Amino acid sequence: MTQPRTTPDTTPSPEELEAQERRLVFRRFTHDDAWALGSLLVELARERRAPVAIDIHRAGQQLFHAALPGSTPDNDAWIARKRRVVERYGASSYLVGTRFRAKGTTFEDSSRLDPDTYAAHGGSFPVRVEDVGVIGAVTVSGLPQLQDHRLVVEALEKFLSV
């Protein structure tokens, strides 16, 4: 396996983001898993004093939600818009936006989707189950988009390594 070419300040390539998604796959995903993953995200966010809202959905049902100090109702609106991108494309919201940028355009200009309903900004990651596919999304909103994405990935890496 090759080492990522990114540093904390650089944007990952579409290939690196796709590799994350291939690697971060669940064997199963239960209500208890959603609670444990969401609690881990809250813990990581609190350690950083991150003003975020956190959401986990599975099959159209919200299984976890937390709004930390400094988050606002706008974060919940962003969560919904980012999650819809994951549900529609079956890929992280950051990867979808990155793919459009790699083509020299933007999601907003080229997707033909309502930007009030969909946002291809980092922070929503697919909950993918082996031999099933994408069944939901884990989403963070409140930081710059790459930081939102990285917080979710960090939590998924810790959670799935247990």
Can you characterise this structure?
46% of the residues lie in helices and 17% in strands. The protein is of the alpha+beta class. It has one domain: Beta-Lactamase (2-Layer Sandwich). The chain is globular.
Low-confidence stretches: 1-7
Helix content: 40-55%
Estimate the mean pLDDT confidence: 94
Which strand order spans the largest sheet, edge to edge or round the barrel?
2-1-4-3
CATH superfamily assignment? Haem-degrading domain
Task: Please tell me how large the radius of gyration is.
Answer: 15 Å
- The ordered H/E elements are HHEEHHHEEH
Number of domains: 1
Largest sheet: 4 strands, antiparallel
CATH architecture: 2-Layer Sandwich
Distance between the termini: 21 Å
* Assembly type: single chain
Class computed from helices, strands and strand pairing:
alpha+beta
User: The CATH topology is what?
Assistant: Beta-Lactamase
- Give me the count of strands: 4
Beta-strand residue fraction: 15-25%
Shape: globular
Total helical segments: 6
